[in-house]
Specification:
The longest helix is centred in the middle third of the chain and has 21 residues. Strand 6, helix 9 and strand 7 form a beta-alpha-beta unit. Among the domains are: 187 residues, Helicase, Ruva Protein, domain 3; 74 residues, Beta-grasp domain (Ubiquitin-like (UB roll)), CATH 3.10.20.30. The chain is α/β, with parallel strands linked by helices. Helix 1 packs parallel to helix 10, helix 6 crosses helix 7 and helix 7 packs across helix 8. It has 14 helices and twelve strands.
Length: 396
């Protein structure tokens, strides 16, 4: 599962990416610093079931600290997007192609209003961040419409002649975007499309692709540079953006994570405070910088970067964590590793869905599952709950 970090140039996308992942990324105060996409891994925090078992766990991926499991999430930071990117302007075509497999987008916006559409620095407050939200939604919709529009009249007439459901036709044409047929079916209903696809015009397709994206690739807002933005600007974004908005100060988060890695501060990503074990190891400038960060945390409780990642997974994509095991008594795999795997799955997924996620053969051979917490046998349609520990029984 991959999250795409998107936005126009010079709003702090790469800083956000580096703060979330501690992966290296080129960061500079000018447009199009990022050319090739940056890839890294962030983590969401969740209570680990091992506390109920009374034994420490052995994660294959991520870590577990003080009873909290850190479950990995892939993050992609792509080149900045400018108006008319879908026509190839800037690095638009490359930007959009890089995003094909992203499950959701974190749109990094300069909440201070200090960056114009091209990514150039302007006087704070002179650019409206809401315009950035709208233009990016429009660019993505134009991009998907461009994919659908190729020979659409011919495809639509053939679908009518053969009485092929349009969700099937559209699903095939959008196969490279990782969208389900159910998403497209729902979007068709919401967009109010004519029953005869041969009657659909370009505006109809644009309306449809907008609905497809909202359902299939949802987007939230990281209101970045919140340390420079007036409170009313953040409030307006929150009220009018039409999606989840999290105030963020990516530079502060990156500074804290790097300092923590160097042992200069004690800080857990997403925490509301940090400590300085030995101030004598820091310069006067570093201490002054930390005081600024401390004041921001006092007002906002968090830098916002970690909550952005977690909100994208938990609220935007509505995912829960499930732990497949082979021994329902000891919660281990065959080698005795306790709770080695943690899977992010859509809320409402079934035990059989989890079996397929573990391995295709396990899903095909599914017989039943056992809830390791209750020791109760459950069927293929059992809806997974967040934190479930599940043994899958399948034909060999």
């Amino acid at each position: 599962m991959e999250l795409g970090v998107v936005g126009k140039p010079n709003v702090g996308k790469s800083t956000f990416f580096s703060a979330a992942t501690l992966a290296p990324a080129q960061i500079a105060n000018y447009p199009f610093t990022t050319i090739e996409p940056n890839r890294g891994v962030a983590f969401i925090r969740t209570a680990c079931p091992h506390a109920a078992l009374g034994k420490p766990c052995n994660p294959f991926h991520g870590t577990c600290q003080d009873g909290r499991r850190f479950v990995p999430v892939d993050i992609l930071d792509v080149a900045g997007l400018v108006p008319k990117a879908h026509e190839g302007r800037g690095l638009g075509n490359k930007f959009l192609d890089d995003l094909r497999q992203a499950a959701a987008f974190v749109h990094v916006v300069d909440a201070s209003g200090g960056t114009d559409f091209e990514g150039n620095a302007v006087k704070p407050g002179t650019h409206d961040p809401l315009e950035d939200v709208r233009f990016l939604e429009e660019e993505l919709a134009h991009w998907v419409r461009g994919i659908l529009s190729r020979d659409f009249d011919k495809v639509a007439r053939r679908a009518e002649l053969e009485e092929t459901p349009m969700e099937r036709v559209l699903h095939e044409r959008l196969a490279g975007l990782g969208l389900s047929e159910n998403v497209i079916h729902a979007a068709l209903g919401e967009a109010g499309m004519d029953a005869r696809p041969s009657k659909w015009g370009q505006e109809d397709l644009l309306r449809l692709t907008g609905r497809i994206l909202k359902r299939g690739k949802p987007m939230m807002i990281a209101a970045n540079k919140a340390d420079l933005a007036p409170p009313e600007a953040i409030e307006r974004l929150t009220e009018e953006a039409g999606t989840i908005v999290v105030p963020t100060a990516s530079e502060y988060e990156l500074a804290l994570r790097r300092a923590a890695k160097a042992g200069l501060v004690a800080y857990e990503p997403g925490a509301s405070s940090f400590t300085v074990p030995d101030p004598s190891k820091l310069t006067a400038a570093q201490l002054a910088g930390l005081r600024k960060i401390e004041a921001f945390l006092a007002a906002h409780k968090t830098t916002g970067v970690q909550p952005c990642v977690e909100d994208a997974v938990r609220k935007l994509l509505n995912l829960v964590v499930a732990y497949p095991v082979e021994d329902e008594t000891h919660w281990t795999d065959k080698k005795g590793n306790v709770l080695p795997d943690a899977f992010l799955v859509p809320k409402g997924s079934t035990a059989k869905d989890l079996a397929f996620r573990v391995h295709t053969d396990l899903g095909k051979g599914f017989i039943r599952a056992i809830n390791a917490r209750t020791k109760m046998v459950v069927g293929h349609d059992y809806a997974l709950q967040d934190g479930d520990v599940i043994k899958i029984v399948a034909r060999a």
